[in-house]
Amino acid sequence: MLWEKYQKEIVPNLVKTYQLKNNLAAPKLEKVVLNVGMGKVSDKKIFEKVGTELSKISGQKPKITRAKKSISGFSLREGAQIGLMVTLRGRRMFDFLEKLFGLVLPQVKDFRGLSRKSFDNQGNWTLGLTETSVFSEIDPSKTEGNWGMEITVVTNSHDRQKAQKLLELLGAPFEKEISNG
To answer: Domain holding 80: CATH number?
Structure first.
């Protein structure tokens, strides 16, 4: 399991690589956030079906996100339902990442690796999927429309290189770096 590998192999490797004083100074995963933005959907049954699919993928009930303010250009009212989100921590987070890196991403059509440019300056990494049907829990014939998903991995490293090394050790299939020469 990825959780045990993280505790026994990855943390000591990071401590040795970056010459840290102890295991607590090693970069850690804080949470994984799954977001499904649905825009303005008036039918509550669609929200329920997409919420059921998201709970199958994550193993946790999603939270409904609402508009913080009204935007007349989008015909959006304050408090309107606009999406769903799930925050995974602990073992569920590691189980989800193991499934994502080992089973889901290799099934994506024309997959050439994850972008190394998707890190922000705080060491957090974001992946956007155009379809949720790549997850084995989802039956494409029974889904309501095609909803994309954003997956954000939040780390405590505050450094791109350390966060990237952490995700590589966890098994993230990043695209190969092209050497000039």
So the answer is: 3.30.1440.10
